[in-house]
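Example record used in the benchmark description.
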Amino acid sequence: MNGRTTAAALHLEGLRKTFRTARGERAAVDGVTATVPAGSFVSVVGPSGCGKSTLLEVVAGLVRPDAGRVLVGDRDVTRRPGACAYMPQEDLLFAWRTVLQNAALGLEVRGVPAREARRRAAELVGPFGLAGFEDARPDELSGGMRQRAALLRTVVQGPGVLLLDEPFGALDALTRLRMQGWLHGMWRQFGWTVLLVTHDVREAVLLSDRVLVLGPRPARVVHDETVDLPHPRDAATRCAALEARLLDRLGGTTGAVPGDTDRAPTTSTRPRRATGPAAAMHRTDRGPRGEDEGRHHGGPEREAT
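Model output (structure tokens):
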């Protein structure tokens, strides 16, 4: 578990999804085709409400597409939850479970005995910066530590393809910056294939090999930008021109949409909570949620990140 993951390419082929509501049909995803090469990091940005999270839920197998396929390598994994490791917007940690117990939960749900599941999770506690907090409860952790625990629970299940839905959206700016650097380091160490949905253009530029820009609802790819910048990336200098170009592209996608009051995005916009048909599925692994995860909880021994 401590070595690099055997990652595979992720292929999205003509994905479409329409929801039927009391007011009629509402198209959410409209023919999205894209490839995330093995071991690469690709981000998806777009106007608020354009269908980014719905697209990720389709890729994760939580929402059934009306058309199209999802492939990991050459395997068709359409409508197969668990084929990719998926992390939704909220950390969904059970308040009554310890860090180690939460991290092992996904394996236990898949039928792995609890002792073995916790042994596997324990191997990653150190690399994930949680050593010494194995027996802590979620309300004893900082926002950044909660997100690391949630990501640990996600990756310990084995798939080398990670789907991340705004994992740092609720964190304060300083913690978010630290977590971005930490995630980049973990990606390089473990070799994951990553598809990240984010409202934060700067986050996309700092982390990604490529950035896909979606137009207004329904989601479709209107621009594919290669981020050909060396790491580490300095947002104040090297990334500024590319960030401005992507913001300009995003500004051009926010034309009038009936019933849509979204404004053109800035560098970072307020994240939305997971909603829609998959929300109930998310809640099957959801313990009680208390205060904002960006706030720090617990006793004086908690980490500051």
